[in-house]
């Protein structure tokens, strides 16, 4: 009996000791200093979740101390690959060729859909992609996402992008003017330029990533991170990804509020009306599985139009490009609850005054994906 009592006492003591140690560990974890990370941004419409994650404290909730690093298009890929920034959200198609060539960048989730369009003048006789055979298409740069999207759309409709059309490069903000002057027959655009041109009534869409199959369910932008950062700091990478995805859900529910926040906090030089109008065309429905599927579908299409090597194994490229992180899942995303801000939504029908304010000086607005330089 004495031995049984002694054993019970020892077991109880061990339980208390283990519990105490676990409690101390949990307390230490909760009191750990925030990890410093660098989040890259350019200062454009579709980056709204990055700005919301900062201003609404979503990064802080994940125990992250964020420094926002402003980048320009020409150096963005190198800044991410070389560790100048740790994580951001950016265009998936823009990174697939560099990843194929060995760049150590990882895609972690899909953020939003619908950036890209091919557009023509309503005064012309081009109504379909097939009508573009032998025509001139204006793009913001060779190899930019609008250029890649236009190539894909042409190929789907039976045209050879290398032979059946000619390409002309203009600054993103001047594409509409080039179309109006007759310098091109169509333009490949990105937000907010696409929405602004459509709102003038002078331009129509002949291909729209937001609505046309097989693009409608494809994510144009995803969470993208430096590969070494992800490998060395998987918990921090997961925490930052969660913050961005939570912010994306917030933007979807509160597009007007997100547009105003970005402008008032001076993350981008625009007008709230312009920003809101462009955000209204995008679909912020974050997804892990959707992001991975979009990597594969975009890579497959890019290989078909010879933007990736003929020998590239798409499944292997997808495995190298996309990383699954603990604590970041579609079930977790579905469980997220975000606030609905009073007055933070757009009216169902935008009135004439709103459109006029939004489209005024549209040529000075930076495009979501269109100012990249080769």
Q: Explain this structure to me?
A:
- The protein is of the alpha/beta class.
- It has helices at 2-30, 48-55, 58-61, 76-81, 92-100, 145-156, 175-180, 193-199, 227-232, 234-253, 255-264, 272-279, 288-304, 314-321, 330-335, 352-359, and strands at residues 35-41, 64-70, 87-91, 105-113, 116-121, 136-139, 166-169, 186-190, 203-208, 219-226.
- It has 16 helices and ten strands.
- The strands form three sheets. A five-stranded mixed beta sheet has the order 7-6-8-5-9, sandwiched between helices. Strands 3-10-4 form a three-stranded antiparallel beta sheet, with helices on both faces.
- Helix 11 (255-264) packs antiparallel against helix 12 (272-279).
Outline the fold blueprint.
Elements: H1 2-30, E1 35-41, H2 48-55, H3 58-61, E2 64-70, H4 76-81, E3 87-91, H5 92-100, E4 105-113, E5 116-121, E6 136-139, H6 145-156, E7 166-169, H7 175-180, E8 186-190, H8 193-199, E9 203-208, E10 219-226, H9 227-232, H10 234-253, H11 255-264, H12 272-279, H13 288-304, H14 314-321, H15 330-335, H16 352-359
Parallel strand pairs: 1-2, 6-7, 6-8
Antiparallel strand pairs: 3-10, 4-10, 5-8, 5-9
Number of helices: 16
CATH architecture of the largest domain: 3-Layer(aba) Sandwich
> What sort of overall outline do the alpha carbons produce when their principal axes are compared?
globular
Low-confidence stretches: 6-29, 361-365, 369-374
Radius of gyration: 24 Å
Count the strands? 10
- Describe the oligomeric state of these chains in a short phrase: single chain
Report the β-strand fraction as a percent range. 15-25%
**What structural class do the secondary elements suggest?**
alpha/beta
Instruction: Kindly provide the name of the CATH class of the largest domain.
Output: Alpha Beta
Mean pLDDT: 86
Query: What is the straight-line distance between the termini?
Result: 83 Å
Q: Enumerate the strands of the largest sheet in spatial order, edge to edge or round the barrel.
A: 7-6-8-5-9
Percent of residues in helices comes to 40-55%
| CATH fold assignment of the largest domain | D-Maltodextrin-Binding Protein, domain 2
Tell me about the largest β-sheet.
5 strands, mixed
CATH homologous superfamily classification of the largest domain: Periplasmic binding protein-like II
